[in-house]
Specification:
2 domains, 260 residues, Four Helix Bundle (Hemerythrin (Met), subunit A), mainly alpha, 0% strand
Length: 260
């Protein structure tokens, strides 16, 4: 995880734990979110429209095995759902401003249920300009909600009725890869939801987006790590490491230097 982002996130979590520093914690959260959103904004000047639907790490394990368009959609659909359906119990930005039609999305869910082929096809259909507009409006709406929170609100948990409303909204798929989100969110209090998805979830997926944007840089970095390990093992005088040398290098080559 990016150290700067991680440190700011840790500072925010520490601050919101105390009543005296709660408002400062919200300001720290906004500072982090602005840094992260700027990463998305900068993409628009650096990649082509086609790049938003590419999957350069299709068989990888991790968040970077999706597309940039899907990742933006996923971040802000989740934020919209959590902010409005779960915390505020009001209408999502997505529905209030008819963003399904504007973005040209065939789904209203978080996208967790989609296979990789479906992610790619889904991404190609999206209106990227409207997707960015949606992301900005969700960000602004969430931050308005957070400004109105009091420290006492942090302990509030979703009611059974809110859970039922969430299920009935069909914004979370019944697919097993998605439906777990219902219990995950509804078992958290507001403080837990601020930590995830309003901060850490952004970090995880925006780091993945940056890897997707620069796949050649990632491979270059992996190769540097690989050759550093090779040098270490070949010059190491410890017998056990020399014995370990051959099998370890085969493993590294297969999984890192030449990813499938």
């Amino acid at each position: 995880m990016n150290k700067q982002w991680s440190d700011i996130n840790k500072q925010m979590q520490k601050e919101i734990n105390s009543k005296e520093n709660f408002k400062s914690g919200i300001e720290t959260l906004f500072f982090l979110r602005n840094i992260l959103f700027q990463q998305l904004t900068d993409l628009r000047n650096n990649i082509s429209p086609e790049d938003y639907s590419k999957i350069p790490f299709k068989n990888a394990k991790g968040y970077h095995n999706k597309t940039i368009a899907y990742s933006i959609w996923h971040i802000f659909r989740i934020e919209d759902i959590v902010a409005h359906t779960i915390i505020n119990n009001d209408e999502q930005v997505f529905f209030a401003e008819n963003f399904q039609e504007k973005i040209n999305s065939p789904i209203i869910t978080t996208g967790n249920e989609l296979t990789q082929d479906e992610v790619e096809n889904f991404s190609k259909k999206l209106n990227i300009t409207e997707l960015y507009s949606y992301a900005q409006k969700v960000k602004n709406s969430t931050e308005e909600l957070l400004c109105n929170l009091e420290y006492a609100d942090l302990k509030r948990k979703p009611s059974p009725q809110i859970r039922e409303n969430l299920i009935n909204s069909k914004c979370v798929s019944n697919n097993e890869n998605a439906f777990w989100l219902v219990d995950y969110w509804c078992n958290k209090d507001v403080k837990g939801l601020i930590k995830m998805p309003f901060s850490r979830h952004h970090i995880m997926h925006i780091e993945a987006i940056l890897r997707i944007k620069n796949p050649s840089w990632c491979i270059f970095y992996i190769k540097r790590v690989f050759f550093s390990i090779v040098h270490f093992l070949r010059t190491c005088s410890i017998p056990t490491l020399r014995f370990f040398n051959t099998s370890f290098l085969v493993f590294i080559k297969h999984f890192f230097l030449f990813p499938q």
